[in-house]
TrEMBL record:
<dbReference type="InterPro" id="IPR036280">
    <property type="entry name" value="Multihaem_cyt_sf"/>
</dbReference>
<feature type="domain" description="Doubled CXXCH motif">
    <location>
        <begin position="336"/>
        <end position="382"/>
    </location>
</feature>
<protein>
    <submittedName>
        <fullName>Doubled CXXCH domain-containing protein</fullName>
    </submittedName>
</protein>
<dbReference type="Pfam" id="PF09699">
    <property type="entry name" value="Paired_CXXCH_1"/>
</dbReference>
<dbReference type="InterPro" id="IPR010177">
    <property type="entry name" value="Paired_CXXCH_1"/>
</dbReference>
Amino acid sequence: MMKVKMFNLLVLITFLIFLPRVNAANIGMYLKSAHGNATYGVNRNSMSGYSIGNCDHCHEMHASQNGVEPTPQNGSPSPFALFAPNFNTAKTTNPYTLSDNYCFYCHSTTTDGSVQVGGIDNHNFSYTFGGYTSSSVTGIYQMFNQASYHNLYDLHQFALGNAGSTTLPFSTFYKQQSNPCDTCHNPHIVRANKRNVSDPTYTPLSKPSDHNNLWGDDANETLAALTNAYQPPYYYGSTTTFEPDGAADTPSNQAAKMPDYITYCTDCHNTVNKIYSTTLGRELYEIDWFSDDGDKHGFRVADSDVGVGDTNTASLKRPYNGSPIANANGAGFVVSCMDCHEAHGSKHAYLIREEVNGKVMESIVNDYNLSELCRKCHMDDEAAYGRASGRNKWRYVHHRAPDAPYHGGGCGPCHGRFGGTGPDSCIKCHFHGGTDKVLGTMATKRRTF
Ligand code: HEC
Ligand code: HEC
Ligand code: HEC
Ligand code: HEC
Ligand code: HEC
Ligand code: HEC
Ligand code: HEC
Ligand code: HEC
């Protein structure tokens, strides 16, 4: 055992000489990281003799180790002495292959070709923190090859300052040769949250504005610290237990178990950065989660009173509506990005989760079928009237609820104008920052998201 450790140390020291940017503090964090872990850390199958967690599983100091180049064979030396190039910048959209991104080489299943001994199973948020263990993806590589995903090329351009990132200090750590995954993660300090889902000190995240530190590991970086109006969604299949670990604890105790994903995502998605999406072929909507003019799912309070016990006027389903869950500050809930979105990709559009508030999407969510998502937390006519025929119909919230926006008048000016009555029209009004201005003179100008 001792021998192995000595060897590890020697390699570290050699590295420090060759690559002086990793300092002592980082080494301490590395040893606590998922990659540096001596039991389950990095362990490439072509590197027998190297201890688990050794830097060399990722960095090849010379073109070869022990006289041969271990797989994957890559010929020329790579930037940062990695065993393969970081990112293929010619790949502007998915599908990706393993060689398009360095991390995929390990973060894939054995069947997909992982070079980590045994491959690595990583699951999406719906599975790991939502409890939906039937989710369809079992690796990061698979996640990025779905219908929607964080486009790696766009992240690369954004981080290089070529696409509207004005607020973030990317230039202090991100280079032409860098890996787009590293905009959100720091591979030298990432920790294994999947093994400790109740403990955010095991966060895998680093904010782009603070790349050299973890995000979520301090109490003031959890959802509990950000807002006392956060209500965690139900855990899959349950109406008594909550994310992220399926415990039946108070909202604030559950929130304290999660990194503050809102601050994390809005490090990039805010009202200042102009973010371009090659996938969507346009600039993204601004996300304003914090101001009084912002989104109602954010800190702006919903117009209708959807607070405690308000069973008549609210269109919300439990746990957002009625006892026993008290809205902590009585002023309106704040929803977290991860309550609706995945981080890496999804079979649904816009990275929408496979499972939301304890229930699975029964059909694919896209521009023509957004209501499948809304139904998880809001009352459709089935829930409002208790009739199966009202399933995924939305007359109650638009025409009948006490605060409904649309009353009287002819039906034609609205119905039939947006691709007909029915779910296909939702996204015309409901999107981040949206209003119903598409109605022109008939618009209420109410904020619709
Ligand atoms: C936009 C930010 C973002 C990008 C880009 C990103 N990640 Fe993540 N990643 C996250 C977040 C947030 C989580 C935690 C929530 C979760 O597990 O879904 C996470 C979790 C993970 C996990 C742990 C999953 C588990 O099993 O719990 C791994 C592994 C990972 N990311 C690898 C990658 C790799 C590899 C890439 C690039 C191909 C990448 N990430 C790109 C945000 C990002
Ligand atoms: C999981 C793979 C992995 C492991 C393990 C790993 N590194 Fe790295 N390292 C990377 C990647 C990827 C980069 C390139 C960062 C980027 O995208 O800009 C990098 C970059 C570096 C750099 C260049 C400066 C920087 O931070 O960008 C140094 C120095 C370094 N690593 C040292 C080490 C040392 C020392 C160890 C062991 C204590 C280690 N690495 C372990 C993946 C790894
Ligand atoms: C040499 C193989 C290897 C490479 C290359 C590699 N990883 Fe990992 N990674 C691992 C292993 C092993 C774990 C721990 C898995 C476990 O907990 O069982 C891990 C864990 C993680 C985690 C912690 C999440 C969790 O809960 O498991 C993140 C985040 C992560 N890796 C991101 C990255 C990123 C980003 C890159 C590319 C810059 C990368 N990894 C490259 C092997 C690798
Ligand atoms: C209540 C569910 C919900 C929550 C919470 C949520 N989103 Fe969304 N998000 C959606 C839906 C639905 C869409 C598709 C409509 C649209 O594009 O705005 C979307 C789209 C997006 C888009 C693409 C925007 C575009 O230009 O089409 C981004 C970026 C995004 N969300 C980021 C975030 C961030 C960051 C947060 C947290 C601050 C967040 N979302 C919270 C439901 C949600
Ligand atoms: C994860 C649960 C969740 C999902 C999914 C969700 N919402 Fe919400 N929504 C809420 C909560 C909670 C509030 C109340 C916010 C507050 O208290 O300020 C809300 C408020 C709203 C409001 C403001 C109502 C008012 O009276 O001002 C609208 C409009 C709305 N949601 C539309 C939608 C649409 C459309 C969808 C589907 C695309 C959707 N929501 C999906 C949880 C959700
Ligand atoms: C490092 C900056 C960065 C962070 C952090 C980040 N994003 Fe993004 N996001 C981007 C960029 C760049 C794009 C445009 C490329 C694309 O469309 O995939 C994007 C696109 C998106 C889209 C639209 C993708 C599509 O094709 O529909 C959604 C949804 C989204 N992000 C959600 C999130 C959520 C949720 C988080 C927090 C877990 C987050 N983002 C964190 C940079 C970031
Ligand atoms: C100012 C716009 C507007 C006017 C005028 C209007 N509606 Fe609606 N109505 C909506 C919207 C928006 C929805 C929800 C989206 C949808 O279901 O298409 C809706 C939904 C409905 C639904 C539920 C349909 C479903 O499948 O979900 C019925 C039924 C309905 N309206 C009937 C009427 C009738 C009857 C009239 C005329 C007396 C009328 N509406 C006038 C905007 C309007
Ligand atoms: C023509 C614009 C328009 C369309 C299309 C539309 N809505 Fe709405 N919707 C509104 C307006 C306006 C409100 C009221 C917002 C408020 O409460 O201030 C609303 C309210 C809601 C709410 C109520 C939130 C609450 O708790 O009060 C939900 C849920 C909702 N819509 C879902 C849908 C769904 C699902 C569809 C597609 C089937 C849809 N909407 C189509 C304009 C629209």
